[in-house]
Amino acid sequence: WQEHSFPSCWQQAIIIPILKPGKEPSNPRNYRPIPLTSCLCKILEKMVNKRLIYYLETNKIFSPFQSGFRQGRSTVDNLLALETEIRNAFLRRQHTVAIFFDIEKAYDCSWRFGILRDLYECNLRGNLPIFIQNFLKLRKFRVKIGNELSDFFTQEEGVPQGSVLSVTLFARKINDILKQLPPSVKGFLYVGDLYISCTGDNMHFIERQLQLAVNKIRQWSSFNGFTFSTDKTSCILFCRKRRLHPEPEILLEGQLINVVNEIKFLGVTFDKKNSLSSPT
């Protein structure tokens, strides 16, 4: 810590690919990478992570609308916020349109320089940012299938999978995306699970405001190295009189965002009539 050294063996990981349930095994994208790293390194990471979280929380760096892995916060905060907005809209005979974003390879694509820059801009100094810089650089991994080990690969960008420190660093990086939203659009994060919503009487106004928000989010994401999946990003219109209104048309990367009748968010399924299913 004092000498600013980080053992090279702690920068290495063995990746065990686990097939996702019900997926085709011939497609490499259908495997979830499970990293095995040094136990001693994990202990140190937890200690450093506590210091980092303490600094970020005491200096109020995190948005109040980021609920992921924060003391006194949980998925319930975001679920209740969405459910309350929908219920209030129904009481006022208004409409709520929500967009649920899917970030492609969120941890793998996190921009390391951007993470360090953000920490510097929030006045983090001393041994802590130096440790984080050494923690992120020169990361290597091997893939293990059965008893076979691949050669080492270098991870040029991103934060290490399976690290508690990576979660906090990613949450800090994605935090500023909420600052891009216009006043009429709400946004909530649970680490990288992002949704935005807009409520009103006029569907054209809602569409314009959400399109403006999506454009600003896309611009910020492009600058910071994140990409949203156009296939997995979804939009839903909450309205008890939906037949009277056309589906919202909002573009992401030049493609219409898919409008669905129900969406699973943080383990709870919402449908267009605001009927909730049991958490799964």
Automatic annotation (TrEMBL):
One of its GO terms (molecular function) is RNA-directed DNA polymerase activity. CDD domains: RT_nLTR_like. SUPFAM superfamilies: DNA/RNA polymerases. Residues 1-270 form the Reverse transcriptase domain. Keywords: Nucleotidyltransferase, RNA-directed DNA polymerase, Transferase. The keyword Transferase applies. The keyword Transferase applies. InterPro entries: DNA/RNA_pol_sf (IPR043502), RdDP_mobile_element (IPR052560), RT_dom (IPR000477). This is RNA-directed DNA polymerase from mobile element jockey. It comes from Araneus ventricosus.
